Amino acid sequence: SKQAIIAPSVLAADFANLQRDIEMINTSQADWFHIDIMDGVFVPNISFGMPVLEAINKHAKKTIDVHLMIVDPDRYIKTFKALGSDILTVHYEACTHLHRTLQAIKAEGMKAGVALNPHTNVSLLEDVINDIDLVCLMSVNPGFGGQSFIENTYKKIRQLKEIITRNGASTLIEIDGGVTDKNAKQLTEAGADVLVAGSFVFRAEDPIATIADLKKITTL
Ligand code: DX5
Ligand code: ZN
């Protein structure tokens, strides 16, 4: 049976109790830590940067999935490797030489991801799909947690799955933004492999039970 990989987004954690929230994820059935890095240029918000990721990495005992919402990400590939990133995702819209960027990420020993904004068609990845370990489909406009899910994402998952299958690629499909217990099953059924969840997990009364619930409802 298949079960979604659950990646809580640390953006929604309580930064004054960050170690507590990291230990919560360690203890839970969550699979990955999703780390949102925003530069205030590519997206209209600034999240947190290197010193905070360094602190997270000291305590995190699971895969660290870094989502760079920054312009010219090539400048920081080596830095994010040094900070403990296992998967490094760059935005399609921020990379003029995407193929080169993917090779540079993999040369550092990380998995390479590409994120697409809601308006960016998945067909643009056709010629590079075999070089991508993970495609992050943004199901909200990047920049903020707590926004509502864009329904067009289901269609994009199905179209992307078809491209992956046709090219014999093993690329994972990650969904980022507005994931809840209301859409998690349908997303997994459509072909999603990884679900990022920020506010739904951290605003819950019992985050550990909420993560367990997401694992359970995404078991196909
Ligand atoms: C949005 C970030 C998301 C965000 C998800 O720019 O990339 O990872 O933290 O938060 P929720 O689950 O609250 O939509
Ligand atoms: Zn993200």
From TrEMBL:
GO biological process terms, semicolon-separated: pentose catabolic process; pentose-phosphate shunt
Residues reported in the UniProt entry to bind substrate: S9, H67, G143, F144, G145, G146, D176, G177, G178, G198, S199
Protein EC: 5.1.3.1
SUPFAM superfamilies with a match to the protein in the record: Ribulose-phoshate binding barrel
Residues making up the signal peptide according to the UniProt record: none
Residues at the catalytic site: D36, D176
One GO CC term, this protein: cytoplasm
Pathway(s): Carbohydrate degradation
Keyword field contains Cytoplasm: no
Cofactor stoichiometry and binding remark: Binds 1 divalent metal cation per subunit.
InterPro entries: Aldolase_TIM, Ribul_P_3_epim, Ribul_P_3_epim-like, RibuloseP-bd_barrel
Molecular function as annotated in GO: D-ribulose-phosphate 3-epimerase activity; metal ion binding
Record-linked Pfam families: Ribul_P_3_epim
Reactions the enzyme catalyzes: D-ribulose 5-phosphate = D-xylulose 5-phosphate
Cofactor: a divalent metal cation; Zn(2+); Mn(2+); Co(2+)
Role of this protein: Catalyzes the reversible epimerization of D-ribulose 5-phosphate to D-xylulose 5-phosphate.
The family this protein is said to belong to: Belongs to the ribulose-phosphate 3-epimerase family.
Protein name according to UniProt: Ribulose-phosphate 3-epimerase
